[in-house]
Amino acid sequence: MTHWTRLMAKLQEWFTKGGRQPPVEEAPKMLRCQDVVDLVLSYLEDTLDPGERQILEAHIADCPNCLRFLKTYRETVALGQQLREEAIPSDVRDRLEAFLRSRLPRSS
Questions:
Q1: 67 pLDDT band (50/70/90 cuts)?
Q2: Chain CA centroid to CA 76, Å
Q3: Cα 18 to Cα 10: distance, rounded to the nearest angstrom
Q4: Of the ranges 17-26, 59-68, 93-102, the best mean pLDDT one
Q5: b/e map of 54-63 (b: 16 or more CB within 10 Å)?
Q6: What is the pLDDT, as a whole number, of residue 4?
Q7: Residue 83 and residue 76: Cα distance in Å, rounded?
Q8: Tell me, what's the pLDDT at 102?
Q9: Any idea of the CA torsion for 13, 18, 23, 24, to the nearest 10 degrees?
Q10: Residue 42 near residue 48 (C-beta atoms within 8 A)
Q11: Rounded to 5 degrees, what angle do the CA atoms 45, 106, 70 make?
């Protein structure tokens, strides 16, 4: 897992208030928008089982808000992967890291 992927996973966890994901064997037959948020990283990393993937894609096909979220998430990942560490000014990187550390839950 790349540094960027770990950062995106932490951001997703932060935005979804604890990063709760339904266990694969208990995937709902109809997804809610919150379920899409919880599964989008696995979807983009192609780690969902085929049934979950099909259900998620069906929801996205019918939900313009989730489709926009997915497109934005993909674009954010792509842009982040284009950045080189030295392209980010050190003061901006330090402030971003401090902000994320203050907001993300501590791992035990």
A1: very high
A2: 10
A3: 10
A4: 59-68
A5: ebbeebbeeb
A6: 64
A7: 11
A8: 86
A9: -20
A10: yes
A11: 30
DSSP-assigned letters across all residues of the chain: --HHHHHHHHHHHHHTTS-----GGG--SS--HHHHHHHHHHHHTT-S-HHHHHHHHHHHHH-HHHHHHHHHHHHHHHHHHH--GGGS-HHHHHHHHHHHHHHSPPP-
**Rounded distance between C-alpha atoms, residue 31 and residue 80, angstroms:** 28
Query: Is residue 37 packed enough to be buried (19+ CB in 10 Å), middle (13-18) or exposed (0-12)?
Result: middle
> Which tokens hold the place of 84?
């080189």
User: Which tokens go with 54?
Assistant: 């099909």
| 80: confidence class by pLDDT, cuts 50, 70, 90 | confident
CA atoms within 13 A on the CB side of 36: 23
Q: Exposed (0-12), middle (13-18) or buried (19+): which is 4, by Cβ within 10 Å? A: middle
